[in-house]
Amino acid sequence: MVGFETFLEPSSTERKTGMAYDLPEGVDIRGKYDAEFAKILSRDALQFVADLQRELRNHIKYATECRKEAKMRYNNGTLPGFDPATKYIREREWVCAAVPPAVADRRVEITGPVERKMIINALNSGAKVFMADFEDALSPSWENLMRGQVNLRDAVNRTISFHDTARNRVYKLNDQTAKLFVRPRGWHLPESHIFIDGEPATGCLVDFGLYFFHNFKAFRRTQGEGFGPFFYLPKMEHSREAKIWNNVFERAERLAGIEKGSIRATVLIETLPAVFQMDEILYELRDHSVGLNCGRWDYIFSYVKTFQAHPDRLLPDRVLVGMTQHFMRSYSDLLIRTCHRRGVHAMGGMAAQIPIRDDPVANEAALELVRKDKLREVKAGHDGTWAAHPGLIPAIMEVFTNSMGNKVNQIHTVKREDAANLTEEDLLQRPRGVRSMDGLRLNTRVGIQYLAAWLTGTGSVPLYNLMEDAATAEISRVQNWQWLKYGVELDGDGLGVKVTRELFGRVVDEEMARIEKEVGQEKLKKGMYKEACKIFTRQCTTPILDDFLTLDAYNRIVIHHPKGSSSRL
Ligand SMILES: CC(=O)SCCNC(=O)CCNC(=O)[C@H](O)C(C)(C)COP(=O)(O)OP(=O)(O)OC[C@H]1O[C@@H](n2cnc3c(N)ncnc32)[C@H](O)[C@@H]1OP(=O)(O)O
Ligand SMILES: O=CC(=O)O
Ligand SMILES: [Mg+2]
């Protein structure tokens, strides 16, 4: 193990190796060499990541096995629920460490991929927080991930700029910027361009490790007011996964020589099993927590996934599964109650609407939907919420500020004790609504176009005036799979058509024709639409549901450079 102090200075051990990365023992890089990437992938930074991986790999494997075991139980008919063994954690009075002053006010948070121009725009957007995303909004190609690390380093050091040559516009940071949170990938995704002891590294440890290593010092000085760095943690299913993150944080703090509790993280509650573990997750992270967030889109995806073997719990059309469905409202209410009882932020989620530039009437209608959604959140007791686009920030800020007045959050003022009575049944209640041919078509059209964008390096896209990312695309995929698997009757159009493979095949052909008409023949040919259609169709029709759309698709974007990318000195 290299002492952490040696990491901090540009060290003499970071030898110039020409066109190859300088690697510690047991680490191999199979991604393309780039001189900028080499500054991120320094020997000492890689050593830090490798040490995290070595210390935690068995815990990660165990947690992965537990996920499989839980899936088997749900597939055999068990319903997720509160764990009697951890009742004492839910019932006892305890609180998380106090919220750091730098992030007490999080009323509007903007999110976006770690792309250079977007990072600058997001930090300048007027939002209180910017969540820079290696996850739902990013296609994890080697190029995107490593450029993302370069961009974040420059953002934290405040040297980031971007020259849009086509528009001759230079982007720079304002004096006042949003506070930066970083969201690493979920536990399930490998980083197949970095091998540690012969195995692909765990994606989130690479994202966390490289970012923390290069930025913790500057971050604490420039924006954390002595705390930080700050993170969002996605897609957890159980508190044992939060415990692994807590170990990661403690280890990083120890090695960096910073106080325990410096690193803070907000956990997304975006899987159905995790809603029954909210106290337990906060408890594991009680020294490092700044709250929970309603990751509503992955949560809906997870509802389908968890109940993949329960034909009595089929979803209605995707557009009908909103926050006013009883199970969604119950989840948000219980999350608020749990967070405020434990002294941390209860963050709202993402409304999918984005500005519609060429149609003022439609734009106003979209904005009104966002306002309504945000008003519901702030009235329920959320302390802040997410915006997908800078154009939405003034309206959302106004809703939260009008409702919260001078308060920076509602942690101590809105307790929601009424939500203590919510039951497992409330949290699992079947969503209501119809299923329609339009729903099947929309899922198909959106799923294919999103995947085509993802395969070519773009992880969040505007489609039909809505933001689409990995989480929303997952809903389209699993909903089609579920409807096909159980041959549901489309009762929403009065036609009573059953979803069969033949019908779905026809829908795919027709929707591909529609996509061609919309994007043009040229773009269709140049893009990855046919490949995307193949992957999406296979995943919708496979007898056993794939765990993640992006796991299969990831293999298509891994590009190994066996020669000249790495060297062992
Ligand atoms: C389910 C979840 O996990 S939600 C969280 C993950 N998802 C996300 O973070 C999605 C974030 N949003 C986005 O990626 C984008 O807003 C999109 C793809 C939906 C739409 O993007 P675009 O089509 O480029 O929007 P549009 O053309 O209106 O952009 C106008 C300007 O706003 C900027 N912009 C748009 N969204 C963002 C954003 N989220 N952050 C920073 N800047 C943004 C654009 O870069 C552009 O800047 P410019 O005028 O300087 O060139
Ligand atoms: O990550 C957020 C979500 O809604 O999913
Ligand atoms: Mg998500």
Automatic annotation (TrEMBL):
NCBIfam families: malate_syn_A. One of its GO terms (molecular function) is malate synthase activity. Keywords: Glyoxylate bypass, Glyoxysome, Peroxisome, Transferase, Tricarboxylic acid cycle. Belongs to the malate synthase family. Residues 179-429 form the Malate synthase TIM barrel domain. Coiled coil: none annotated. Transmembrane segments: none annotated. GO terms for biological process: glyoxylate cycle; tricarboxylic acid cycle. Residues 436-557 form the Malate synthase C-terminal domain. Residues 25-88 form the Malate synthase N-terminal domain. GO terms for cellular component: glyoxysome. It comes from Abeliophyllum distichum. The lineage of its organism: Eukaryota, Viridiplantae, Streptophyta, Embryophyta, Tracheophyta. It is an enzyme of class 2 (transferase). It holds the Pfam family MS_N. Its main location: other. It comes from the Eukaryota. Its EC number is 2.3.3.9. InterPro entries: Malate_synth_C_sf, Malate_synth_sf, Malate_synthA, Malate_synthase_CS, Malate_synthase_TIM, MS_C, MS_N, MS_N_TIM-barrel_dom. PANTHER family: MALATE SYNTHASE, MALATE SYNTHASE 1-RELATED. Pathway: Carbohydrate metabolism; glyoxylate cycle; (S)-malate from isocitrate: step 2/2. It catalyses: glyoxylate + acetyl-CoA + H2O = (S)-malate + CoA + H(+). The active site is at residues 183, 469. It is found in: Glyoxysome. This is Malate synthase.
